């Protein structure tokens, strides 16, 4: 009984712990990279690239094929062994094995293998880019939840102050120190703040659902994140010159690497197209054999009378007959040879070389080469455009990070000013030197300044991490 109670308590504790689990940003990113559908599709592209490489390697292996067949013939048919026409029913079988190997094809097989290696590398870069994008999406969604939670805390905290003011104002109104209109004004402020709290709670829940959907987590109700310990962590990237960040981005970012691999792929396609202009030399070897169960006929000597004397001519001058002895044979039907004997006796081989020289083929090869040249030029332009786009994007990210830092610093100063103004207004209101409306307006400005500081803080955190990502820091190593 005691053991059952202990087990039940442990299970209840585990269930409660699972329900109260709060996901960290690192856990969310790792979970997304393992379960996101787009990432899985990119991983499948890498697998397809491996298959493409395996196929390219197979071009260097001889082609070997074997075949065989069994048939039964009735009526007039040709014996596959003797090639004689016979009217009978017989069973026949044949088998063959053929091998071919390309000795030279304009180095196209070699180029195909090189192309497969480049294609696999490009697929890996696309996977890396997809992981970076997913990591940023998750980080942005995560920070949005933290921002909404921080705003909710501000509203709840300030509403507690408002409730204290209501209680104090009620006492002052009952004592006749303040007009009843001030109490109504404070209560109206409380009602407005309650509405803002409800909206903030909805924003928290919506942002949590959006993050859970991004992670493919269906348990929306129990999903929550760890919202403590996330501050501005700057490893010095923001203080670097923008030219250094752009240079590092061009060296490390997957967008450039993908475009570079596309140029190399286009170059290999051009080389493969040119290889079709060269002759193709291949070797072949074949082995075949056959079997039939048709009986054979054999000339056999009569053991009782092994020879016979037969006139073969006459001497013209004397008229004397010329005779000779011949074996006394007769045609005797014998059964078909055994299967293994026939397979050995009826086999044959063939081997040789085959040369194919392209002369005129409707300009197909020429057109293929020209298309490959155009594709190569397009890939070069795309690489150039990718470098320009990345430079523009990094510069924009740099400006955004600098601007968001200034906004964050300005929001800090604004909050400090509004906090002083609010404290001053509160002191004046407590001694009756200002009315409830002016006090509420001062408190509202202070609340808005607190919310704006939260927004500026997390906006700067996100834009700083974007800048660090462009600088070459892996998404899984970003510090918050």
UniProtKB/TrEMBL annotation:
<keyword id="KW-1134">Transmembrane beta strand</keyword>
<keyword id="KW-0732">Signal</keyword>
<comment type="similarity">
    <text>Belongs to the outer membrane factor (OMF) (TC 1.B.17) family.</text>
</comment>
<dbReference type="InterPro" id="IPR003423">
    <property type="entry name" value="OMP_efflux"/>
</dbReference>
<protein>
    <submittedName>
        <fullName>TolC family protein</fullName>
    </submittedName>
</protein>
<keyword id="KW-0998">Cell outer membrane</keyword>
<feature type="signal peptide">
    <location>
        <begin position="1"/>
        <end position="18"/>
    </location>
</feature>
<keyword id="KW-0812">Transmembrane</keyword>
<dbReference type="InterPro" id="IPR051906">
    <property type="entry name" value="TolC-like"/>
</dbReference>
<keyword id="KW-0813">Transport</keyword>
<dbReference type="Pfam" id="PF02321">
    <property type="entry name" value="OEP"/>
</dbReference>
<keyword id="KW-0472">Membrane</keyword>
């Amino acid at each position: 009984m005691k053991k059952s109670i202990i087990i039940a308590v442990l299970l209840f504790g585990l269930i409660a712990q699972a329900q109260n689990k709060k996901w960290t940003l690192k856990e969310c990113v790792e979970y997304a990279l393992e379960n996101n559908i787009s990432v899985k599709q990119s991983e499948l592209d890498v697998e397809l690239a491996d298959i493409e490489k395996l196929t390219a390697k197979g071009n260097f292996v001889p082609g070997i094929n074997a075949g065989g067949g069994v048939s039964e013939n009735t009526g007039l048919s040709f014996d596959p062994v003797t090639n004689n026409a016979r009217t009978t029913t017989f069973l026949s079988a044949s088998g063959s094995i053929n091998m071919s190997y390309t000795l030279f094809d304009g180095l196209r097989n070699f180029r195909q293998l090189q192309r497969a290696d480049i294609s696999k590398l490009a697929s890996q870069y696309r996977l890396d880019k997809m992981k970076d994008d997913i990591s940023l999406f998750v980080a942005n969604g995560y920070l949005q939840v933290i921002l909404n939670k921080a705003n909710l805390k501000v509203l709840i905290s300030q509403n507690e102050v408002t409730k204290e003011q209501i209680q104090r104002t009620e006492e002052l109104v009952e004592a006749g120190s303040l007009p009843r209109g001030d109490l109504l004004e404070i209560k109206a402020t409380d009602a407005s703040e309650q509405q803002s709290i409800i909206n903030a709670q909805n924003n928290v829940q919506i942002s949590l659902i959006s993050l859970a959907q991004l992670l493919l987590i269906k348990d929306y109700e129990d999903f929550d994140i760890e919202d403590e310990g996330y501050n501005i962590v700057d490893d010095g990237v923001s203080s670097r010159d923008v030219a250094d960040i752009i240079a590092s981005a061009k060296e490390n970012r997957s967008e450039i690497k993908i475009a570079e691999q596309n140029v190399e792929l286009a170059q290999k396609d051009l080389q493969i197209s040119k290889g079709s202009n060269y002759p193709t030399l291949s070797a072949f070897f074949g082995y075949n054999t056959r079997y039939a169960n048709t009986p054979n006929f054999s000339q056999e000597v009569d053991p009782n009378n092994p020879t016979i004397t037969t006139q073969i001519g006459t001497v013209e001058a004397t008229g004397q007959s010329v005779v000779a002895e011949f074996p006394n044979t007769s045609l005797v039907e014998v059964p078909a040879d055994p299967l293994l004997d026939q397979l050995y006796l009826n086999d044959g081989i063939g081997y040789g070389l085959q040369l194919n020289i392209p002369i005129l083929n409707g300009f197909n090869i020429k057109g293929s080469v020209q298309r490959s040249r155009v594709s190569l030029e397009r890939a070069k332009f795309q690489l150039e455009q990718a470098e320009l786009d990345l430079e523009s994007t990094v510069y924009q990210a740099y400006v955004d990070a600098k601007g968001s830092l200034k906004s964050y610093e300005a929001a800090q100063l604004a909050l400090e000013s509004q906090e002083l103004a609010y404290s001053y207004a509160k002191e004046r209101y407590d001694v009756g030197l200002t009315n409830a409306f002016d006090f509420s307006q001062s408190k509202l400005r202070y609340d808005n300044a607190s919310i704006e500081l939260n927004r500026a803080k997390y906006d700067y955190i996100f834009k700083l991490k974007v800048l660090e990502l462009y600088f070459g820091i892996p998404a899984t190593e970003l510090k918050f």
